[in-house]
Design goal:
With 280 residues, the chain is α+β, with helices and mostly antiparallel strands. The chain contains six helices and nine strands; from the N terminus they run αααβαβαββββαβββ. A five-stranded mixed β-sheet has the order 2-1-3-5-4, with helices on both faces.
Length: 280
């Protein structure tokens, strides 16, 4: 393990009146950081070479858990958003190392969220519709689609989540990962099921009776022991669909799913809850 003198936070700062000493200290830290980044990249490369490719390498839950751990231990003058930005670039580079990671996007807000999360070097292909972006993932043209967050569409816009087809596609992340109330939200969809982060929401879609009120739909989820933290309802062509965001990471064998009073209820994914930055 690398143990550079300047990587120890208890080592006194250099004499700030001696510019040469300050620059030497910064160079030492930069060299230690570079060595650690190279070491991380070598581990990722060895891991990628040791196993057969089994779908996109994205593990959004694992990435969120890493950021939560780092933010929980963070202190000092560096703002949390900058710490997240640094590590998002490192994590994005790990994806690129494992065979590239192309993204299909729909909508300007989703494209901006994708750039912020996956970095400026990730290949990103805009599409005219959400359906076309999802088709690009199914066809292997992209490893993931980034779409406006489920439930954020207007009444005149198609709701892509009503046709999402697990086990071919799953929602695995919601962006941005660092809570930002004013920022547009986007969902990441890919072919590999989501993985838990330790603080998650699961997405359950159900076709419900067309005339059922929102309150009655919510009561149906609650009656199965799956109260909705958020509920999105879409009515179109005489049919009605509901998407419930439920606390916790559910798996397909979750017994409460069978208790829902809706015969075509299906788990369509999960995402890490946005991380609240530590208070100063």
């Amino acid at each position: 393990m690398l143990r550079g003198r300047m990587t120890d936070p208890d080592v006194p700062l250099p004499d700030l009146s001696d510019l040469a000493a300050v620059r030497a200290a910064l160079d030492e830290v930069d060299d230690a950081l570079h060595a650690l980044v190279k070491r991380r990249a070598a581990i990722v490369a060895a891991l990628a070479a040791s196993r057969a490719k089994s779908g996109p390498p994205l593990r959004a839950g694992r990435e969120a858990a890493i950021l939560r751990r780092l933010l929980a231990n963070h202190s000092g003058p560096l703002p949390p958003a900058f710490l997240v930005r640094i590590w998002r670039e490192i994590l994005a580079s790990s994806l690129a190392q494992q065979g590239g990671f192309a993204l299909a996007c729909f909508g300007a807000a989703a494209e901006a969220a994708a750039r912020l999360h996956f970095g400026p070097l990730a290949p990103l292909w805009p599409h005219a519709t959400a359906a076309r972006a999802l088709a690009a993932v199914v066809d292997g043209e992209a490893e993931a689609a980034v779409l406006p967050a489920a439930g954020s569409e207007t009444e005149t816009e198609p709701a892509w989540w009503t046709a999402l087809d697990p086990p071919r596609l799953f929602v695995v992340a919601r962006l941005p990962i660092l809570a930002a109330p004013a920022a547009p939200q986007a969902d990441v969809v890919t072919t590999v099921p989501p993985d838990p982060s330790g603080a998650d929401r699961s997405l359950i879609r159900a076709e419900v009776p067309a005339g059922l009120s929102r309150a009655a739909i919510a009561a149906g989820f609650a009656s199965a022991g799956l109260p909705a933290a958020a509920l999105h309802v879409r009515r179109e062509a005489g049919r009605a669909f509901a998407l419930a965001e439920v606390a916790g990471f559910l798996r397909p064998e979750e017994p409460r799913l069978a208790r829902l009073p809706y015969p075509r209820a299906v788990l369509v994914g999960a995402f890490a809850e946005p991380i609240e930055p530590p208070r100063p």
